[in-house]
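user: can you give me the structure for this one chain? tokens are fine.
assistant: on it. calling the predictor now.
[tool input]
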Amino acid sequence: MATDGTDRLLDELLKGKKPEEILGEEGLLKELTRRLVERALDAEMTEHLGYEKHAKDGEHSGNSRNGRSKKRVLTDTGSVEIEVPRDRNGDFDPQLVRKRQRRLKGFDDKVISLYARGMTTREIQGHLKELYGTDVSPTLITAVTDSVLDDVQAWQSRPLDPVYPVVFLDAIHLKLRDSGHVQTHAVYLALGINMEGEKDLLGLWIGESEGAKFWMNVLTELKNRGVQDILIASVDGLRGFPEAIEALYPKTQVQLCIVHMVRNSLRYVSWKDRRAVAKELRAIYRAPTAEAAEKALEAFSQKWDHRFPSISKSWRSRWENIIPFFSYPPEIRRVIYTTNAIESINSSIRKVTKKRGAFPTVDSIRKVLYLAIRKASERWSRPLREWPPALNHFAIMFEGRIPR
């Protein structure tokens, strides 16, 4: 919190100033930045030499100040020219602005923040030029955002918990330019619910198409990172997944995501009929037992098959992986059905990818998605509300697999 003295100083500095005189290309903010940096560099030189400027302690010390050299650096307020002090021995290595450093940390943070909001490299370049009068090359912006890849690697390889009661596996599809051709790639996200009922995004994987081999790689990575058991895996599709999960986590129960089943069903329905069809589908997945659900599906089939035959056919072909849902009490059903967290992530990703026609590289996808995921996860502040009763049921239903 600012002190009265600081407030008075700011009032004096800003008195009579127009906005452009404060924030403009040659404005007060840039001048203050330049002076603060130079003052800090002078203090570093004093510490390096061991005596103040013009002090007699410096006589015959073996080293002394030797003028200044000009240097232009990029800051979060634009480009600033500073004067860096030199010493006669040439061994002064400032920490605030290192040798050959051309950007202050605030500039990199600014670029990464813009990138995290979905702006393309060209858009960031134009934004910095328009606001700060700074010409920055696309190569430099790419180099700055590439620093995020180290964080992505550390996040993707971090150790995980030994047991996750529920893991959601969901896919989004993005376009990638490869050798002049644009192809659609699936990006899979794994969201775990840990023993405390907290959401934990386990990782992201990019592949041209899913299948048993792809899922084997994903699940092997999870096992290598410490995941010993998954009680329920809720997936949005089954292509190759049951075979892979059987090989690595044979006790895991595969549950087809009900939300995706409903959503995919409604793709076949005209807008005017969607509410009525959705109501009939609700009677299926809200049924108290698998038998009641099967009767509701038969009733749905008789009513709608003449117009939308693909819907009941789709549910019947996947029925084996839908019905585990009905053996759970309401507490666990709500945990499995609740996909707010994964939907929140997908919404954040759509916001930052909707303006991009196609990504230039796989690494560019990783950077953008990691930043979007990190932003979305900041809102995960508390365990699931339904978790305590759900955990009690898990302990009974999956006896011996819940850690104490």
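assistant: here you go. The mean pLDDT is 83. Strands lie at 65-75, 78-87, 163-178, 181-193, 199-207, 229-235, 253-256.
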